[in-house]
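Predict the assembly for these four chains.
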Amino acid sequence: MRILYVEDATDMAEAVAIRLSRAGMACDHADSVEAAEDFLAVQSYDALILDINLPGRSGTDLLQSLRARGDRTPVLMLTALFTVDDRVTALDLGADDYLVKPFDQRELEARLRALLRREAEQKSEDLVLGALSFSPASMTARVAGDPVDLTRREAALLALLLRHRGQVQSKERLYNGLFAFNDADVGLNAIELYIARLRKKLAGAGVTISTQRGLGYRIDADG
Amino acid sequence: MRILYVEDATDMAEAVAIRLSRAGMACDHADSVEAAEDFLAVQSYDALILDINLPGRSGTDLLQSLRARGDRTPVLMLTALFTVDDRVTALDLGADDYLVKPFDQRELEARLRALLRREAEQKSEDLVLGALSFSPASMTARVAGDPVDLTRREAALLALLLRHRGQVQSKERLYNGLFAFNDADVGLNAIELYIARLRKKLAGAGVTISTQRGLGYRIDADG
DNA sequence: TGGGCGGTGACAGGTTCGTGACAGCTTTAC
DNA sequence: GTAAAGCTGTCACGAACCTGTCACCGCCCA
């Protein structure tokens, strides 16, 4: 899951980015609307976290132009204000959710997960395939009820695959979901490595990760 | 995806072409506006990468005449200049994006992908025919819901046929969609080969690829 | 009946992928 | 604060598979 966090307070942005990456999300940080637009020109995101109070152009500006050009990426708005009016304005402009500063990081993560789930049109919180079930909230996997120890990256990769079960996901796409621009020099080859590690840990889970040479990977239930 | 890269620095062009082809894009290289127009007369492209500083006629010339004759192919401009004026000029002439030299190759790829994605989002719905469905986004084919493993070339060929279902596609046309001029030494015969492989893999899919001798191939639903 | 075009099996070459070993870094435990 | 454990990502080499050629056969049409 790739997130863009638009926020001018750098220290805060870093703290959030670290927590999110710990939760398996690749998070880029833009400190202005202009910077955010550069990121958006180059990379597509699964969600945006958008501070309203920015130096120069405001966050609502960005949201408006996003929606104007038909971009439906889920947006979570942040603000220090609390009036009902502001809330309504933000939602009318096309924000999907709203959080008042200061906020609890766990709440941010939870709301983000909710947005992403809505986007993927998942019925339930957990992703289930064969005997395997995965909970994005706790980043834990279970095979027939027994927990499987996955590392952060392994879990993030599994989540990406499961969200698009049955569809081939290109290596580049998985790479973009796993790594932010910060981790610039990581080789594409790392994906192969994590696929191998996942396959090993998920042996007997009733699922198969198959390789389409030159195209990517796909997860399916056995049988 | 077929790209035309207009650039007079041959060594640089080659490096870029290699990287792009590794990313699955067929990339032709023209070293002048005149050469580019020869390519464009003969072949249609999914995107153009256009250096502004060329010997003889400049890149903006080419862009202008393209747009003047109604060609909306996405264009990514390259230049050594950095002024806001140049940027605005290029965008006003109809360039879709803009990159300043020297640039990072990964950024070029990323921006190109973004351009192509924007273009592709409109036509990325699944192609359905008989019991066969193909999703261009994930390059996945299914027969009655069961995935069929296709290689990259097979998938590209199937997509071409399905986009023009019921119409005869000449062998040359299919060839041009699959190969760049660079792969010059690939025989036309390769198309026959891939048609054969597709027929084999799609047996029982409720579709038929029929041969029109001397004309080309056509895909239809059975019955 | 012959010429041209398309179909197909086998094969060589090249690319992509899988995987074990290893080094750097972070986290955890004491 | 230090040591141990574990996670991450690189490298290199071998295996698997895609790719396109060749050769040969069959079919269609004049």
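The interface with chain A takes residues 23-24, 97, 107, 110-111, 114, 117, 135, 137-140, 147, 149-152, 155 of chain B (CB under 8 Å). The CA atoms of residues 80 and 101 of chain B lie 5 Å apart.
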